[in-house]
Amino acid sequence: MVEWTQEERVIIKEIFSKLNYEDVGPKSLCRILVVYPWTQRYFAHFGNLYNPEMILANPKIANHGVVVFRGLEMAVQNMDNIKNTYANLSKLHSEKLHVDPDNFQLLADCITIVIATKMRSAFTPEKQATWYKFLSVVVSALSKQYF
Ligand code: HNI
């Protein structure tokens, strides 16, 4: 089981408290779809993803970016039990959506870049280390039902 220090808990909660999901959600999802275009195949039913401008302007993508951050919030609120918290979400991505689990890490990287550009110098190496640990646990929990 993952152990969290008090400092780590504070850092994660502090980062989340400053996030505007309507801003970072769409930006993170757009980033993965542009940088790793094969991920677009999972969102074909969202309509026009023809180029970066269309992706950015797509309201379904924007909305889903917020959904992803609400999903991350579930992990923040259950930091001692992320694996079980994500059991159903993992099953959904595996059995119904058939999302290749390698993509979870790619989205985690895009989220980190978006957050770094928001926080700028406040995203210290210490905060990044804690953030990386948090997203690693999220990625691992989301990948759990694949095996
Ligand atoms: Ni993901 C649906 C959370 C990564 C493709 N995803 C969801 C939902 C949540 C969620 C929450 C809504 C579930 C529901 O309706 O019950 N996804 C997350 C999180 C991550 C993640 C927290 C990683 C940080 N998802 C990914 C990745 C892909 C992905 C990397 C594909 C590249 N997810 C989807 C698709 C759906 C989805 C597709 C369904 C969308 C829809 O509405 O049709």
TrEMBL record:
Identification of the protein by name: Globin domain-containing protein
PROSITE patterns membership: GLOBIN
GO CC annotation, single: blood microparticle
Gene label: LOC113574849
Classification lineage: Eukaryota, Metazoa, Chordata, Craniata, Vertebrata
Gene Ontology MF terms: haptoglobin binding; heme binding; metal ion binding; organic acid binding; oxygen binding; oxygen carrier activity; peroxidase activity
Source organism: Electrophorus electricus (Electric eel)
Keywords, comma-separated and alphabetical: Heme, Iron, Metal-binding, Oxygen transport, Transport
Residue intervals of the Globin domain: 3-147
Biological processes annotated in GO: hydrogen peroxide catabolic process
Stretches that traverse the bilayer: none
InterPro entries, A to Z: Globin, Globin-like_sf, Globin/Proto, Hemoglobin_b, Hemoglobin_oxygen_transport
N-terminal signal peptide: none
Domain of life (superkingdom): Eukaryota
SUPFAM superfamilies reported in the protein's UniProt record: Globin-like (SSF46458)
Family: Belongs to the globin family.
Coiled-coil stretches noted in the UniProt entry, renumbered to this chain: none
